[in-house]
Specification:
alpha/beta; D-Maltodextrin-Binding Protein, domain 2; 2 domains; single chain; 16 strands; five-stranded mixed sheet; disordered C terminus
Length: 327
């Protein structure tokens, strides 16, 4: 090999190395409720795609804290479920995160799956582990098929699957996302153990700054008022042309009868600054972000687990445009 060719190869290798470093530097960091294999991870991958750095966290508060401290660009957190209703701890976390904004929403179909150590029979199961939502959503199925089994709450559905895999005990099973079975080496014992096939969960994508874009159709406001004050607020929203999507209430915890309200609204024509300003002019109301919502269809839900992250520890059509401002 001539010296000229050798120099050319070295230059090419250097350029490729620089490009690889640049690509990694540009990857968005997304914290989510882990470990790997949770529905929250699935929601994050659906919104952001597969090229970003996903960072599993033990709690929702840790995921939000990453955004607040700059350790992550975004966080993905659950908010409510068709069967279990509002996930109150996560609603509380959103209320407490005053310097964090909702910049996206994903609605994900939820297919709760019973899994256990390979070779497990239903008759052997004495304990079922899952996130409290998984336990609630499967209550009717368990009453019919595992009437004597006890339940054990875990931090997430994937944490339950990981626990069962490590325990290697046929008397203990987990309810989790279908992909968690393959990810943790478990056998699927029963599919769709939730009460209804229309089971869905709403997830929020959070950032440290509101999304700056015209024509966004959704917004979230957080209000601090007495229970009677919500009537005036809802009327003002309706008069402003905003349609209520949901209202969650949580106790304010200092005065009986006073609440924090999380209110999502929509206007398909696009929410304007005037609408936001009018609502925020009301006492005790703060703006928590404008965004678009997307829903993943059942046929898009993968049965296989998401690929493991190697350096993080644990489609929507417009998702690219949703990230341009942050990148």
């Amino acid at each position: 090999m001539t010296l000229k060719k050798l120099i050319g190869i070295l230059i090419l290798m250097s350029l490729l190395s620089m490009k690889d470093s640049t690509d990694k530097a540009e990857a968005l960091r997304v914290s989510f409720l882990g470990p790997e294999g949770t529905y929250t991870e699935e929601a994050a991958r659906f919104w952001f795609g597969s090229n970003e750095e996903l960072i599993p966290k033990s709690t929702v508060m840790e995921a939000i804290s990453d955004v607040q401290t700059g350790e992550a660009d975004f966080a993905v957190i659950p908010q409510e479920n068709t069967l279990g209703g509002a996930v109150v701890d996560y609603v509380d976390a959103l209320i407490a995160a005053e310097d964090t904004f909702v910049v996206g929403e994903v609605v994900l179909p939820i297919s709760q799956t019973l899994m256990g150590v390979p070779g497990t029979e239903l008759s052997e199961i004495g304990t079922v582990c899952s996130h409290p939502q998984g336990i609630t959503q499967s209550a009717e199925w368990r009453r019919k098929n595992l009437p004597d089994a006890e339940t054990k709450e875990m931090g997430s559905t994937a944490a339950a699957a990981s626990y069962v895999a490590e325990l290697k005990d046929k008397t203990v099973a987990a309810i989790a996302a279908p992909g968690a079975a393959e990810l943790y080496g478990l056998e699927i014992l029963a599919e769709n153990v939730q009460i209804t096939d229309t089971n869905k969960t709403r997830f929020y994508v959070l950032s440290d700054a509101p999304k700056e874009e015209d024509g966004l159709s959704r917004a979230v406001f957080i209000a601090d008022c007495e229970g009677s004050g919500i009537d005036e607020l809802i009327v003002a929203m309706k008069e402003s042309g905003l349609e209520t999507v949901f209202v969650h209430d949580r106790p304010e915890r200092s005065i009986l009868g006073r609440y924090h309200f999380v209110i999502e609204v929509k206007d398909e024509a696009g929410i304007s600054d005037d609408q936001i300003d009018r609502i925020c002019s009301m006492e005790g109301v703060r703006f928590a972000g404008c965004f678009e919502a997307t829903e993943k269809s059942v046929k898009e839900t993968p049965s296989e687990p998401a690929p493991a992250e190697t350096d993080a520890g644990p489609e929507m059509e417009t998702e690219g445009s949703a990230l341009e401002g942050k990148k």
